[in-house]
Amino acid sequence: MESRVAIIGIIVEEPSSIESLNHILHEYGAYIIGRMGIPYPKKEINIISIAVDAPQDVISALSGKIGKLSGISSKAAYSKV
Question: Please, what is the Cα angle at 17 between 16 and 18, to 5 degrees?
Fold first, then answer.
């Protein structure tokens, strides 16, 4: 299956869900190119971006699993290549 490059943007509003988030990211570690996390204390949130290279169904599954976590939202943006 052909892979695509994408960025998954994640907003963490509930710190108690971070352990579950890290577990999911570890599960998909083979597809992750890089990860950047930015704490934003002023709004009491964390902003995370994950760069991935994976088949589209894997990216959708990862983003969907992350989005189902309590207090966490995610969105994927795909490259055209």
Answer: 95
Per-residue pLDDT of 36-62, as tens digits, reads 999 999 999 999 999 999 999 999 999
Closest CA to 53 of 36, 29, 72: 29
Which residue, chain included where needed, has tokens 């991935």? 52
Instruction: Return the ∠ at Cα 28 (arms to 26 and 31), rounded to 5°.
Output: 125
Q: Which residue range is the domain that position 30 belongs to? A: 3-78
Provide the number of structural domains found in the chain. Answer: 1
> How many whole angstroms separate alpha carbon 41 and alpha carbon 27?
28
